[in-house]
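Why predict the complex rather than its parts? Because the way molecules touch one another can change local conformation, and only a joint prediction can capture that. The input here totals 1128 residues.
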Amino acid sequence: MSDTKTQNWRSKLHDIIYEADTRAGKAFDVILLIAIIASIILVMLESIKSFDEKYHTFLNISEWVITILFSVEYITRIITVKKPFKYIFSFYGIIDLLSTIPKYISLLFGGVHALAALRALRLLRVFRILKLARYLGASNLLVSALKASRAKISVFLFAVLILCIICGTVMYLIEGEESGFTSIPVSVYWCIVTLTTVGFGDIAPVTPLGQFIAALIMILGYGIIAVPTGIVSAEYTALGKKDKNPQIPPIPLNSQSCENCLAEDHRDGAEYCYNCGEKLHF
Amino acid sequence: MSDTKTQNWRSKLHDIIYEADTRAGKAFDVILLIAIIASIILVMLESIKSFDEKYHTFLNISEWVITILFSVEYITRIITVKKPFKYIFSFYGIIDLLSTIPKYISLLFGGVHALAALRALRLLRVFRILKLARYLGASNLLVSALKASRAKISVFLFAVLILCIICGTVMYLIEGEESGFTSIPVSVYWCIVTLTTVGFGDIAPVTPLGQFIAALIMILGYGIIAVPTGIVSAEYTALGKKDKNPQIPPIPLNSQSCENCLAEDHRDGAEYCYNCGEKLHF
Amino acid sequence: MSDTKTQNWRSKLHDIIYEADTRAGKAFDVILLIAIIASIILVMLESIKSFDEKYHTFLNISEWVITILFSVEYITRIITVKKPFKYIFSFYGIIDLLSTIPKYISLLFGGVHALAALRALRLLRVFRILKLARYLGASNLLVSALKASRAKISVFLFAVLILCIICGTVMYLIEGEESGFTSIPVSVYWCIVTLTTVGFGDIAPVTPLGQFIAALIMILGYGIIAVPTGIVSAEYTALGKKDKNPQIPPIPLNSQSCENCLAEDHRDGAEYCYNCGEKLHF
Amino acid sequence: MSDTKTQNWRSKLHDIIYEADTRAGKAFDVILLIAIIASIILVMLESIKSFDEKYHTFLNISEWVITILFSVEYITRIITVKKPFKYIFSFYGIIDLLSTIPKYISLLFGGVHALAALRALRLLRVFRILKLARYLGASNLLVSALKASRAKISVFLFAVLILCIICGTVMYLIEGEESGFTSIPVSVYWCIVTLTTVGFGDIAPVTPLGQFIAALIMILGYGIIAVPTGIVSAEYTALGKKDKNPQIPPIPLNSQSCENCLAEDHRDGAEYCYNCGEKLHF
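Output of the joint prediction:
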């Protein structure tokens, strides 16, 4: 009997932490989001020396509060899931661990807290949380368009890279070391900076021939920036059309997460996990 | 009888100030536009020190002329509308007030005239005035396309922001303070400058590893700039198509503004306000 | 009889100079193009001090050769056309004159030869000459797409300008004169440099708040660069479709130019000018 | 008999080196790819002075190993093909030679090894090797879209160039030599840097009029960057549509290369070269 009770208690906690269809689940997600943002702001403030000197104690205490909160969340996540190792070695599991432990390690060694920057990766959870909102569709279509044009964009970026290596080498031979083109890798770096129209200006050609070739590279970059845009644009239009004349109506999904295998995107009203057959509860 | 006269007088002024279908209304709008542009140029000239020293008296007098003109306009707007508070607390009402009072306040305290820069916001009225012209359609379609792709662009910009926070932190750890990456916020700022292909060059990586990662960020930025373009492009094409095969012919609108509730975009020939039922006059 | 001869002689010269359907006409166009490019290169070389000092005599003589050639061409154009004033006050007529006279004026006064830079405008003739080639279609469709989206792009650029004025003023108030934001016009200039993702870096924000707002401006600029692209892309697709399913087959045009009114784009086989009724000859 | 044996041996080697359908052919391609990348990295490392000083002997030996490998490959390619001169004077033949000989020449003269940078061109072979993979389709469509829009983009880039010459000359006249606009070519270079939104900042306008015109150029550049994107986007969409509703199913190709004329892209199952009638073997 007590076992069932534990079961229920664990099951409820699982719903709150992993899902967002209940009121408590939504509240948990929002609080988690605020904690993540607060933790990132803390790391940022800590990196500003003048600020750190003034409010060191305050920052340190806040860091510990956040770290303990995250630790509690991490342990609860492990407890409430049926196959803890699946969570621990999942993408989010590793990020959760890495963004929690640096503070503990900093007790033994110093200065490892730079790893705390990994917390920024936890922001990716926002997408899961925002999934609930109307952004879901937008985000999915975006990802689909990018996936569909992945091969084409890879070919394009690869061609750009070869172009940069060739142009970079040419510029190195022309400009020489006085202008800042100290080696071929630096030249290639300059070429990428120029072709992508970023143009820092820390290195810039000074010889007439170098400036002429730089101008050619820029006009080329200006012309070929059209290519990835054209690709994504076409894919997006194509996907959008499919989206508007669907043969099969889109299946409404909910934010349920299987207790056993962590699979998501179950359809509304599904009783069993489509992945492992585990019973789902609402 | 005198009451009806006042009514007529107020009604006529309302038509001139708030609408642009009559000759006097058009003339008023053009004069107002010129006054707004003149006032902005004045604030700009005042900010140039060498110019201000030479022509201080001229600038001061012109400022007062413009301020008094705007005050008169503001008061007339309040008088001629039936529900003055609706205007006062509307977007344009607040801007009109804020762009008029700084000069008065500067009599009591000094240096508040920087607020006069808010006058630039009055330029937005231009859109209302240009509505009359053939730009109306263009502007509306543009706004619709942007509205339709708002959710998608938000998701995209949010993803870019997370990317910048992660990359910025990495660059801070690699480059350190000697290269100008003095804190994580500054690093994130640099990352935004780079990813958006602006590339000021006030901060630039100097270590080979930093330059390598910077090159990756740039190529990434070059690749993903295609995403918002693709989104807007697709939305715009979709909207344009709807526009060209309209099931329902577009309703011709005029520039009437309801005296009671300030609602606009009444259809040609409408006798009553679609929003509050107030009688419209021509 | 001699009059008819003169007529014939004038008519033939007209065909050579103004048209490109005959062999002599094509040859003339190519030679003219080479002369224009040579004249531009001369002006460029002259502006390089070290080069000018070495080869001053050579440059001066070449300049005179080109100038005399252009003068002869200009006079012939006036003689061979029936209504000379129409040519003289046409766009090309004015450019032809302005790119020829500076050298003569420099005999009386010094240093006016900077006007010779106007010769670059003569390069626009290239489009007329290239019209003959397969580029005709491409160039026309391009111009049509730009014309069709003119109103929309104007609205967009105007909105961008207002945004720059507002942001520029805000940055001036935040950054102050130490960072290089010396006046509002300079701030607006910086804002345009940033929003268009050019980013010279001659002026860059140094305060945290300034950098934060600069980051917002950049992300905004990154997002809205999609708008003109989307507009042109949609117009171009629409025009291209019309082009491919034409109800009326495109009329083949030739490079005939009416001797009387200079009208161009006559259809193949036309006997009389569509504009003034003058007889055309082949 | 021995002749047939030689024939077989040559034929087999030909299949390995020029084709990629056999296991040995694939392995050869991968090894060649690794060798090319290694050779490029070697040239890059050599150009870094501090690195070259430390590991000069190691770099020199590695260079010789790579050079000998490439020499062997080059000679084998000549032997195994039926018409060696066709290979020697083909694009890849010349690149292969030029990227191999510099090391030999450096024995006689010094410092010619800069030519080794030409090896980067060998990277283009990657496209042939990757052709086998699913990238084939993507790469072909990309090339087709670029070819289809070549004429239009040429017209566009030409118009941009004329614009840059005109604007550059104007900026030279306005800014003068104090601001870095030392000659018209430099001004044109600056103009290209600005219009393409690269913006190095090594040269930047300082006079108010110069900054005003620079702002106009930037806004123009921001507006017209839409043109090539629109062109490619439209072409790509059009090509993609044709691709999806093909009247004729796409013919499956293999990586066979004719021993006689080096023609590629033979259809699966073809027995004879479509170009010269030579028997193909598998």
